[in-house]
Amino acid sequence: MTDIKTTISEYSAKFNQALPSFFPLPQGAEKRVVEAMQYSVMNGGKRLRPFLVYETAHLFGLDFNASLRTAAALEMLHSYSLIHDDLPAMDNDDLRRGKPTCHKQFDEATAILAGDGLLTYAFEILSAPETCADAQTRCELISLLASGAGAFDGMVAGQMLDLIAEDLPQNENSEQLIKRIEEMKTGRLIRYACEAGAVLGHATSAQRQALVDYSRKIGIAFQIADDILDVEGEQALVGKTLNKDSAQGKVTFVSLYGLNNAKQIANQLIADAKQIISTFGPASQTLQDLADFIINRKY
Fold this sequence. Notes:
The chain starts with a helix and ends with a helix. The protein has helices at 4-18, 31-41, 48-58, 64-85, 102-105, 108-127, 135-149, 155-165, 174-200, 205-232, 235-238, 244-247, 253-257, 259-277, 285-296; strands at 95-96, 99-100. It is mainly α. The protein has a two-stranded antiparallel sheet. It contains 15 helices and two strands.
């Protein structure tokens, strides 16, 4: 049986090989912003979100090419969020995926524009007929991503809460706050990855709900794993500055529950996720293995 890390690596290699075709360079000096966009997207990464799009769509018989553009659009948007998250006004980080962050490699203004460019490019990709022949399906993919990334109950809202949380003392509302931050900042794009596969595959309402439920379990576990890695990970493997959460006074799952309890919570979430996705039968084995990988990963 193929190891899940090998499976993800093989998908990532294929996905990465396809990415340069999305970045034709303009002839003029404005190509600098496209170079910054390409640098940030091609700068490594686990490719878990694109992999989730592919694997969930694959449950319904879709191949790599049928899900590629949706997966690429999601990775464009995810990379935009990382560029902006690393900016001095946000997390102020110098490293991303073991390499200089976009504003360090280029400059702050270019990084802002590169993030803007990737955000809008995601929707340009989704809107093209090459993504899916059915216009209604394309519209649903666009609407879901806009909502998942947005300022009302999506990723931007989660980022706002994350910034506010730095100045809040821990109290009885901290647990509700950290769960809300995770649900929007991290969880919504993971949910989109799974739900997009269901949309592409024309899943039944029950199948789609199962994928949403699976995504919520692994989304929370993913954030807990990130919080744990910030405390006990190896910077060379994680690829970004560690121990920043405690230094900035951020409320995290580890600060709330302690390291051991946080690990136990993550393990239970993964067990629940595997049970949910197992309803798809043997075809769900890779998604079950992925759930285990999320909390056992070292990066």
